[in-house]
Amino acid sequence: MPIPGGQRVTTANLRYAEAYLNHMNGNIAGLAATYGFHIATPEESEALFKSQIMRQEGTSTVPLFEADDMIFLNQTSTGANALALLRQMYDLYKPNGDGVLVSSVHGRKIGFYYLPNGETDKSKALYLISFKIRGREDWRDTLMSGVGYQDKSSEQIERDIITVVDREIQQAVRGK
Predict the structure, then answer these.
(1) Cα-flanking dihedrals φ and ψ of residue 126, to 5°?
(2) What is the chain's mean pLDDT, rounded?
(3) 3-state secondary structure 8-77
(4) Which of 57, 61, 94, 107 is the most buried (most CB within 10 A)?
(5) What pLDDT, on a 0 to 100 scale, did the predictor assign at position 41?
């Protein structure tokens, strides 16, 4: 039997976490800008999500824009910088090592997209990779959400992610 008022408390915590994440969007945008990236504002994210633009993933068609945080890279971006931003975002979701917020956003999706310099229409972006915040203390699980399960250390997975993002950017630049 649930605790009286328990659902209200859970709902209130979730709403607080969502409001805090929207508030953090400015911080994330500032971090992204240090790498020459752009992050979609909450309004842009909502419009892109509602656009229902689809992309091919294997034999399936899936929404292009399904991430909670949409980060746009360009031809001068690097996998190392994308990984550094992902790590900084993960740390923002876990302020002062406190896992309360990150557990509230379990499953929050961070998507990286390619958009050439000078292009302002974000609906023309190409999907690169995405990650889901997995748990309070598991950076490795968050990393594996982007590249699949691997029996490797976090450091090895980070190197793999850098390689994958660099390759995806180069393929996008070449139009593949």
Answers:
(1) -110, 135
(2) 84
(3) HHHHHHHHHHHHHHHHHHHHHHHHHHHCCCEECCHHHHHHHHHCCCEEEECCEEEECCCCCEEEEECCCC
(4) 94
(5) 86
